[in-house]
Write a structure and sequence with these properties.
- Chain B: One of its GO terms (biological process) is transmembrane transport.
- The structure holds 2 protein chains of 2 kinds.
- Chain A is α/β, with parallel strands linked by helices.
- Chain A has 13 helices and 13 strands.
- Among the domains of chain A are: about 70 residues, no CATH class; about 110 residues, no CATH class.
- Chain A is globular and about 65 Å long.
- Chain A starts with 5 loop residues before the first strand and ends with a helix.
- Chain B has a domain of about 100 residues.
- Chain B is built from 14 helices and 12 strands.
- In chain B, strands 6-7-8-3-9-10-12-11 form an 8-stranded mixed sheet, sandwiched between helices.
- Classes of the chains: A alpha/beta, B alpha/beta.
- At the A-B interface, helix 8, helix 9, helix 10, helix 11 and helix 13 of A face helix 8, helix 9, helix 11 and helix 14 of B.
Chain lengths: ~350, ~350
C-alpha cells in the first residue's frame, strides 16, 4: 500500500473580522490518493474554496490555520515556513488553477515569458531547456502550433484557450498535485467539456493527482473518482463517485442531489431543502445540518458536538445516523480509526469505477 | 400551438462596429449581425426556451422583445400588434403586460430603495392605487413569492441572492403581466436555491397562465421547465421543437453536440454523440454556407457553400441542416456500459 499523495487531518481555518470569528473550515480530514481526481463539492459559502487555498496557504490576511495538519510527502504544509513553501511547494509540487484565467495571467507579458519564468523559478534548467519544456506544456494542453503561440499575449487567446494556458503553466514543473478551483465555471458547455477532458487526460498520462473544487454535481459525476461533500465548513461525506449518486450516505448529499432538475420528471415540483445555510458566525450546535435535516435521529444531532466520522462501505460520513450509540436502529458501521481511513480503501481501477 | 401571444417574424439585428471617421466617410462601415432572420411563436401559458452558448444572440432577441433594442428588420407582434408601431396607450399596455427578470438581482434592484419601494414602483406608473393600497399589494406580492411581508422595509444588501431574485419576480408580477421574459434567472444561484425559484416560476405559470420566454444556457433547467426549445447558433435558430422530443432525438448536429457536452449528474449515463469541438467563430466574420460547418462532423461540400434554411423536418420539428436525417437517426440516449464509458474517456 502506498501512502496517499495528500493527507489533511483535522484542519481548522478561522477568519477573524472586527467583531467575530468565523470557523470557515472545521475539523476537516481527507486523503487524496496517487493519480486520482478528488472532487470537493458544495454550495456558496460552504468553505470549499477556503479549503483549497489553505492547502497552498494562500489565505487572506485575516484567515489562519488554527489546527490540524496538511501532509504532503514528508512535509506538513500547515507548519512550513513561508520561504520554504514558496521554494518547494507552490508551483513546483502543488499548483493551482482558478476560475478566471484573466486574473491568473499577466496581460503585459507573453505567455512564453510567463511559462519560462515559472519553469526557471523552480527547476535548474537553461533558457533553451525551459523554452523546450514550455512548448511541451502547451502541446500537452492541446494548444495548436505551440511554438508560434509562445510569443503571443494573453489577449490573443480565446477564453477556453486562456484557461488551457493557465493549466499549461500549472503543469510546467510536473507537479504531484493540481488544485483546480471551479476551473470551468463561466465557460460555455462545449469549452467546459473540452477542459474536463483535458483534466482527465492529464490525470491519466501524468503522475498528477487532481483536487477539483466545484458546485456542479454534473462535473463531479463526469470526471471525479471520489468526492467530498462540504456543508457549512464541515466535510460531511467522502465517497466514491458512484456511491454519491446511487446511494448517498449523508442526508445533505441526498437532499442536494434531489434538488437538481435532472433527478425529476419534467415539469414536476423540485425537492427543496428547508431553511437556509447557517451563518457561520453562529453555527448551529450539534450537527451543522440538523436544522434543515429530515433525518434527525438523536438528541446529539441538536446538542452534541459535530458527529464523528463513521465508515460505511467505502465511504466516510459524519452523521449520527451511523452511530450505533445514538441511532439504535442502526448497526454495522464503525468509527474511523486513524490509519484505517481511505488509505486502506482499495483504489479501484478507473474503468471499473466509471 | 393554438393561440400565439407573441410572434417573432424574420427578426434581424445588426450592430455597427466602431470604425474611424474616414472609413465612415468612405462608407466602409463594418457590422456585426447578432441576430439573423429569427422567427418563433410563444403560445398562451407556454414556456419557450432560447438556448445556446454565449454569443449566440439569445439575449439580443430578449432585448428586442422588451424594446431595449430596435430590430434592423423583421417584426415582433404581441397579441397581433407590432410592438414597434404601438400608440402611446398601446405601448403603456405592452409595458405592463410584458415584464422581465434578469440574471443578476444585485444589479437589477436599486440598492438605495427599500424592497417595498422597488416593488411598488411599477404600481405607481401603471395603476392609480393609493399609497395604502400599494403597501397592501406589496405585502400580497411578497407572500406570493414566499417572502415575509416584513421584507418590504429592508434594503437589497440585507437579502440573499435567492431572496433578491424572488423580489425581482414579485416586482415583475406587480402589474399582473401575462408574459415574462426570463433572462438566465437562476444562473447565479446555488442548486438548492435554484430549485425554489424554478418551483415558484412553475407554480405562477400554472396559477396565472403566464407565458415565458426563458433564456438560458443551462440545458438541465431548460429540459425541466420548458414546453418547447429553440436552439440558437451564431445569431440563427438552427433547431426548434418540443422539449422532450428535442432532447431525445436532436436533428441538428449543434444540438447533438451541445447535449453531449453537458455533464450528466449521473456517473452511469453519458449521452452518445459527438461532443462539440473548437469554439464559436467570430460573428463579425461568420463562416460561409452553414455557419456550423467548420465544427460539424456531418459536414460535406454542400454545407460549405449552401446555407440550409430552417424548415420542418418531421412532425413538430424544424431544423436547418442538410444532414438532419442522419443526425436524427442516431440513438442518443441510454445507459452507457462500462466499456463504452471507458472508450469515451
Amino acid at each position: 500500500m502506498t501512502s496517499p499523495r495528500l493527507s489533511v487531518r483535522d484542519l481548522q481555518v478561522t477568519y477573524t473580522t472586527k467583531h467575530d470569528e468565523v470557523n470557515a473550515v472545521d475539523r476537516v480530514s481527507f486523503d487524496v490518493q496517487n493519480d486520482e481526481i478528488f472532487g470537493i463539492v458544495g454550495e456558496s459559502g460552504c468553505g470549499k474554496s477556503t479549503l483549497a487555498s489553505t492547502i497552498l496557504r494562500l489565505l487572506d490576511d485575516n484567515g489562519e490555520i488554527t489546527g490540524g495538519e496538511i501532509r504532503y510527502g514528508d512535509w506538513d504544509l500547515a507548519a512550513m515556513s513561508e520561504g520554504e513553501l514558496a521554494k518547494q511547494i507552490r508551483g513546483r509540487e502543488i499548483s493551482m488553477v482558478f476560475q478566471d484565467p484573466n486574473t491568473s495571467l499577466d496581460p503585459v507579458y507573453t505567455i512564453g515569458r510567463q511559462l519560462i519564468e515559472t519553469i526557471r523559478q523552480h527547476l535548474d534548467v537553461s533558457k533553451q531547456e525551459a523554452r523546450k519544456r514550455a512548448i511541451q506544456s502547451l502541446a500537452d494542453v492541446g494548444i495548436p502550433s505551440p511554438e508560434d503561440r509562445l510569443d503571443d499575449y494573453p489577449h490573443q487567446f480565446s477564453g477556453g484557450m486562456r484557461q488551457r494556458v493557465v493549466i499549461a503553466i500549472a503543469l510546467s514543473c510536473d507537479p504531484g498535485l493540481l488544485i483546480a478551483d471551479e476551473p470551468t465555471t463561466g465557460l460555455d458547455v462545449s469549452i467546459q467539456a473540452q477542459i474536463l477532458d483535458l483534466l482527465e487526460d492529464i490525470n491519466a498520462n501524468h503522475d498528477t493527482s487532481i483536487i477539483l473544487i466545484t458546485h456542479d454535481l454534473g462535473v463531479v459525476a463526469e470526471v471525479c473518482d471520489r468526492v467530498g461533500v462540504m456543508y457549512a465548513g464541515n466535510l460531511v461525506e467522502v465517497s466514491p463517485v458512484d456511491v454519491v449518486y446511487d446511494d448517498p450516505k449523508h442526508p445533505y448529499t441526498e437532499d442536494l442531489l434531489r434538488s437538481i432538475p435532472e433527478t425529476h420528471e419534467m415539469k414536476s415540483e423540485l425537492t427543496v431543502i428547508k431553511g437556509t445555510p447557517p451563518d457561520l458566525r453562529e453555527p448551529p450546535s450539534g450537527c451543522r445540518y440538523h436544522p434543515r435535516c429530515t433525518k434527525v435521529c438523536s438528541d446529539a444531532c441538536e446538542t452534541g458536538d459535530i458527529p464523528q466520522e463513521y465508515r460505511e462501505d467505502g465511504s466516510v460520513v459524519r452523521c449520527y445516523l451511523y452511530d450505533p450509540a445514538e441511532n439504535p436502529e442502526y448497526e454495522g458501521s464503525a468509527k474511523v480509526d486513524e490509519g484505517q481511513r481511505d488509505g486502506q480503501l482499495e483504489s479501484p481501477e478507473r474503468g471499473d469505477q466509471l | 400551438m393554438t393561440d400565439p401571444i407573441l410572434e417573432v417574424d424574420g427578426l434581424t439585428k445588426q450592430f455597427a462596429l466602431n470604425s474611424s471617421v474616414l472609413s465612415r466617410l468612405l462608407g466602409n462601415t463594418r457590422t456585426l449581425t447578432a441576430v439573423r432572420d429569427v422567427s418563433f411563436e410563444v403560445g398562451r401559458g407556454e414556456t419557450l426556451a432560447l438556448v445556446g452558448e454565449s454569443g449566440a444572440g439569445k439575449s439580443t432577441v430578449g432585448n428586442i422583445v422588451t424594446r431595449i433594442h430596435q430590430p434592423t428588420s423583421g417584426a415582433v407582434r404581441y397579441r397581433g400588434d407590432d410592438i414597434h408601431e404601438l400608440s402611446n396607450e398601446g405601448l403603456r399596455e405592452y409595458r405592463q403586460s410584458v415584464q422581465m427578470v434578469f440574471q443578476d438581482p444585485y444589479s437589477s434592484l436599486d440598492p438605495r430603495y427599500r424592497i417595498g419601494a422597488t416593488i411598488a414602483e411599477p404600481l405607481k406608473i401603471h395603476t392609480d392605487l393609493s399609497k395604502a393600497d400599494r403597501r397592501e399589494r406589496v405585502a400580497e406580492l411578497l407572500e406570493t413569492v414566499n417572502l415575509d411581508p416584513d421584507f418590504a422595509d429592508r434594503y437589497p444588501h440585507e437579502l440573499s441572492g435567492g431572496q433578491l431574485q424572488r423580489v425581482s419576480i414579485a416586482t415583475a408580477l406587480s402589474v399582473d403581466p401575462e408574459f415574462l421574459i426570463l433572462d438566465e434567472p437562476v444562473s447565479a444561484l446555488d442548486v438548492s436555491v435554484q430549485a425554489r425559484i424554478l418551483n415558484l416560476l412553475m407554480q405562477l405559470q400554472r396559477e396565472r397562465n403566464l407565458s415565458y420566454l426563458f433564456i438560458s444556457h443551462d440545458l438541465g433547467v431548460v429540459k425541466h421547465l420548458s414546453d418547447r426549445v429553440a436552439v440558437m447558433y451564431l445569431g440563427e435558430i438552427v433547431e426548434q421543437g418540443e422539449t422532450a422530443s428535442l432532447f431525445e432525438r436532436p436533428a441538428h448536429p449543434y444540438t447533438e453536440g451541445l447535449l453531449a457536452s453537458v455533464p450528466q449528474a449521473n456517473p452511469h449515463v453519458r449521452r452518445r454523440g459527438q461532443r462539440l469541438t473548437g469554439e464559436i467563430p467570430s460573428p463579425i466574420n461568420p463562416p460561409s454556407g452553414c455557419p456550423f460547418h467548420p465544427r460539424c462532423e456531418y459536414a460535406t461540400e454542400e454545407c460549405e457553400s449552401d446555407h440550409p434554411p430552417l424548415e420542418s423536418v418531421f412532425e413538430g420539428r424544424e431544423a436547418a441542416c442538410h444532414h438532419w436525417e442522419e443526425v436524427s437517426a442516431f440513438e442518443h440516449v441510454g445507459e452507457m456500459s462500462a466499456e463504452e464509458r471507458r472508450e469515451a474517456n
